[in-house]
Amino acid sequence: MLRRISGIGRASGLLGYTVVVAVVCATMGADSVPGAPRALAVLTGIVGAYWIWRTFTSGIPAARRTARAATAPEPRTRRYALLFDVGDAAEGALLVIFPAEGSDALPEGLARIVPPGPDKCPWAGLPAPTGTVELRGWLDAERVVVAWIEGRPYWPQDVYQDVDPSDPEALEAVAELLPGPM
Asked: Global pTM?
């Protein structure tokens, strides 16, 4: 998951195609590769160079911040409710975070997590719909928090969002995420 967060797989795949076509052109001659694959190699090389730049400037630092958050001391124990739309797996699963005490407590935060399963079955490996979560990380300027459920990390897709229970607009926004009639 940290490799996926860093973006190194996408960049290396794009540049890998470009390198293979360049090696074939260099060893067998440029005429051995038709024009369309050569043009595609140039295009993937340009896009791959962009993704390598993004990987080194933001992807790898984000993966490092996330790894540091996953091992942060003093986790905060909370309750959660998992929301996941199988039809829109790219959106990711959403953990609605509640205080550890009080069964009728209002939500205090939202944490969108990366679906842990493979691309064909992203919901595989999701935690139970409700339960207890340990939040590790820092709620400072970076707001990177990793959810640990039953001893397994669930990596964040975005930053942790606080929900102010005294703000009716914030609670209404959370209610819109919930399934069922309003």
From this structure: 0.70
